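dumping this here before i forget
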Amino acid sequence: MSGYRLANIHWNFYIELDEKWIAELYIEDKSYFQQTLMDLCQQMTIQEGPFTLSKDNKLIKFSKNIEIIMDYLRLDPNNKKVMTKIISRMEKYAQDDYVKLQKIMTEINSFYDELMYQGAFDLQRDTSVSLVNLLKVAGFSINNNFETLLERLICYIETENEYLDVPLFVLVNVDSYFNDDEIKDLYDYMILNNIKLIVINSNLPKRDVEIEGVKRYIIDRDLCELY
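structure:
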């Protein structure tokens, strides 16, 4: 079957993802749980380690295709990489209406010239007004007035997927932050929008809400694999 696969040289299984389900990995041994997370995070920077990520049976880079989320309280959709992409898109939108853009740029330059000669000093200015700089002054940003932590998480995932083309997210210990209904809503959102998700937990939760579209992998306290 084609799609995304996350494998580990120490495992006898691989985590397979497609548009139909969410993958849940439970690692009951705390030490191995910690080591697994450390390995994943390390490969985000140095690209070497026990994990491999593939799409349609072709190896792909970790850093460009995975986002690992552990701290849900500090998620900021308006990070530097996203803001750079937003400005780039706004620049393209502005250039699509070339006549209007040129008119605005001419008016701005004329306004700057008028200001320059108002004072008593002999002033000069940069005559090449940058569209990018004008867009930055506008202060575009993602609306981050969230009422719930789940809204913050979904907005962050949506933003990273839309602007940075991140297809796969790894969430750690979601059951410590969200209730069963919120987790169901999160899973439904990911499946509906075809965004791949792996949830890594240190404990197997007892949920009161039935959640469909979940494929579980378990590494128990004795490091036995159940899948």
